[in-house]
Amino acid sequence: GMFDSDGRKVPCVGVSIGVERIFSIMEAKAKVSNAKVRTTKTKVMVVSAQKKLVDERMILCNELWEADINAEHSYKLNPKALTQFQYCEERGIPIAAVIGQSEIEKGVVKLRNVATREEREVIRADIVSEIRKMLQEMEQSEGASASS
User: What local confidence, expressed as pLDDT, does residue 46 receive?
Assistant: First the structure.
């Protein structure tokens, strides 16, 4: 029965699972596989290459949100590009959409694969389809490497 300071007999049943042990095993497996554990659902980080582009970051984020793509941007007014890229790496955000004054003038966005650091320019109007294509390619390559 249940422990009761008054000495009453209360029938009950208890169950215990080793949550600590489960997490320990998961952490050990992650260390062995060298896999980066994603700590966020964010798929795209909108990065500004220069100062005073918070409005542009917000507009691009909104476009991605409307297309049902999990995106975010730094909430600092003038964040450093390197700090934004490090944020992506630490949290496992796979794509950085980089905008600067020259990209805005040309009507393009640079899409950066955070893991490989490969960048390519895409036309701003095509950004949603290009991001979806990149995410699909990343998922396929992860699936291929996980099965081998």
Answer: 95
